[in-house]
Amino acid sequence: MQSMKIAPSILSADFSRLKDEIQAVEAAGADWLHVDVMDGHFVPNITIGPVVVEWVRKVTTIPVDVHLMITDPDKYAPDFIKAGADWISVHPDTCENPNATLNRIHELGAKASIAVNPDVALKRVESCFNHIDMVLMMTVFPGFGGQAFIPEVLAKIEEVRGIIDRRKLPILVEVDGGIKSDNISRVRNAGGEVIVSGSGIFKTPSYADTIRQMRQAVRQT
Ligand code: DX5
Ligand code: ZN
Predict the structure, then answer these.
(1) Those residues with Cβ within 8 angstroms of residue 123's Cβ, 6 or more apart along the chain or in another chain
(2) Is 65 exposed, middle or buried (0-12, 13-18, 19+ CB in 10 A)?
(3) 32 C-alpha vs ligand 1 centroid, how far in Å?
(4) Which residues contact 93 (CB under 8 A, 6 or more apart)?
(5) What is the Å distance from ligand 2's center to 167 Cα?
(6) For residue range 58-112, what is the model confidence (pLDDT) as tens digits?
(7) Which of 46, 124, 166, 212 sits at 20 to 30 Å (Cα–Cα) from 40?
(8) What pLDDT sits at residue 11?
């Protein structure tokens, strides 16, 4: 298992001060920046597009991890990569042919990831495992920040970790939804490597203290 990476989701940031917020989490020790893209079709919420990612890219040096929750990733993923996304995650139900979408993301120069909703079995995405650099395990149903963590997904995270380790696949395990300093150790122990946290970081008074607490919580288990 790789060393843990913390990826604050800017969905819970103060958008009137987005540059400051990004630079503050970066200075506080964030490893990646998670960007939640929602189109009001695949999920009942609308967030941000490639224009914002272009500006995000200009104010940070850490990897930009774009989570596409949109019905047409084949059409829009290229725009996000052009805007500077290092990582693109797609949901399998939004792709006519997930492996073709993942290959295209690679051709355009980004890393590719497949997202697994809480009610989706790993079997549904196993045929993608030779085409991805990361699997994104959702611990909430996508659509909104600030939802409660679904602990039943932990078993599935252990399962995917087992498959990756047994087959020695070069795939990172990212976990997203409802993660805070009080449950991060369970996610890490189940095999999570890239830990997304939106409200768990941006809704706390000191990002540096929170990220420090998160790393400490993991070390103590
Ligand atoms: C959910 C998003 C998550 C979310 C994380 O649709 O994919 O990335 O914003 O936010 P918290 O940590 O607040 O659940
Ligand atoms: Zn996300």
Answers:
(1) none
(2) buried
(3) 14
(4) none
(5) 26
(6) 999 999 999 999 999 999 999 999 999 999 999 999 999 999 999 999 999 999 9
(7) 124
(8) 98
Torsion of CA 5, 119, 144, 179, to 10 degrees: -30
At residue 70, the 3 state secondary structure works out as coil
By annotation, the residues acting in catalysis are: 36, 176
Six-digit token pair at 182? Answer: 């009080």
Residue 1 pLDDT > 90: no
- Give the tokens for residue 140: 């909430």
Q: Read off the pLDDT band of 221 (50, 70, 90).
A: confident
Buried b vs exposed e over 190-203: b needs ≥16 C-beta within 10 Å? Answer: bbbbbbbbbbbbbe
Task: Ligand 1: list residues with CB < 6 Å.
Answer: 9, 11-12, 34, 36, 67, 140, 142-147, 176-179, 196-200
